[in-house]
Amino acid sequence: LAQLIFIGTVACAATSFLPIEIAALSGAIAMIASGCLNIRQAVRSLDMRIFLLIGAAFAMGLALEKTGGAEYIGMTVVNTFQPYGDQILLSSVFFIIAILTNIISNSAAALLFAPIGLAISQQTGIDPISIVLTVIFATNCSFATPIAYQTNLLVMGPGHYKFSDFALFGIPLIFILWLSFSLLSPYFFNV
To answer: H/E element holding 75?
Structure first.
């Protein structure tokens, strides 16, 4: 029965019959209601560190925004890299966001840097779509830390991964994506 509930949950989410969060919650309720899990087992399976880290990441992003730290970072990037051309500026924006997304989570980084990216676009004259796509691509480079993306947190405990495991495999991948972006962006963004 547990396998059927699991397969049904995955099928509902995979086919977009239900949004993934509704499908997962329905699957969890079905597991408890059917007796496959009791309440104690369900509660023990939740890793409270995940919730704390996600909350802390959003708080950190909000703090950067409220204190003006994010705005300062954006303007510093423009002042530092714009003299070298738009391609270097976009590459630098990508690299900085890719680093910060591994500290404050990709969702918080996207929320934080989209308006900053638009401000950079207005200040420099770069096409806003190019900047927004740069922000989107960079915020998805969330491989180097477990706090960067929720799924990283979910697999960390059960997979017995250490923080360093994410960095070991994530940092080289981020550099590959950054170099690929830097080399290909002129062809796609006309910078």
So the answer is: helix 69-81
